[in-house]
């Protein structure tokens, strides 16, 4: 993608990215929120297309940055954190890379936030093991 026009085809890029990393997300958001906020699901997918597909940084790095930010924000981000840990894993991030991104945030969000995030990541890792059978 060219940085000259990051908004061009943002929805299409976001849809492809989202379906690759979190299949069914747009439909799930639409089912839950459309009655109250029509278009919210599409807006989020389009925003993902603007941010996650810009180039410059690869998608795995962007996911690790997202994990770090969510970890620093604390326990209220647990559901989103688990989604992004799973997405990072799909994009090739190792468990150790995820853990390091979270651990780094102990300096910025504090140890309790880091432990909450690490526990959320461990849940994702355990679910992967169960899925792998």
Automatic annotation (TrEMBL):
<dbReference type="InterPro" id="IPR052512">
    <property type="entry name" value="4CMD/NDH-1_regulator"/>
</dbReference>
<dbReference type="Pfam" id="PF02627">
    <property type="entry name" value="CMD"/>
</dbReference>
<dbReference type="InterPro" id="IPR003779">
    <property type="entry name" value="CMD-like"/>
</dbReference>
<dbReference type="GO" id="GO:0051920">
    <property type="term" value="F:peroxiredoxin activity"/>
</dbReference>
<feature type="domain" description="Carboxymuconolactone decarboxylase-like">
    <location>
        <begin position="40"/>
        <end position="122"/>
    </location>
</feature>
<dbReference type="InterPro" id="IPR029032">
    <property type="entry name" value="AhpD-like"/>
</dbReference>
<protein>
    <submittedName>
        <fullName>4-carboxymuconolactone decarboxylase</fullName>
    </submittedName>
</protein>
């Amino acid at each position: 993608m060219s940085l000259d026009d990051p908004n061009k085809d943002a929805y299409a890029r976001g849809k492809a990215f989202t379906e690759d990393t979190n299949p069914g997300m747009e439909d799930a958001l639409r089912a839950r929120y459309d009655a109250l906020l029509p278009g919210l699901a599409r807006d989020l997918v389009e925003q993902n297309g603007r941010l996650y597909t810009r180039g410059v940084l690869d998608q795995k790095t962007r996911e690790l940055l997202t994990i770090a930010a969510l970890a620093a924000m604390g326990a209220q981000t647990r559901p989103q954190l688990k989604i992004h840990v799973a997405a990072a894993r799909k994009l090739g991030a190792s468990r150790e890379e995820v853990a390091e991104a979270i651990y780094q945030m102990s300096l910025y969000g504090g140890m309790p936030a880091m432990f909450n995030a690490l526990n959320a990541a461990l849940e994702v890792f355990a679910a992967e093991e169960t899925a792998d059978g």
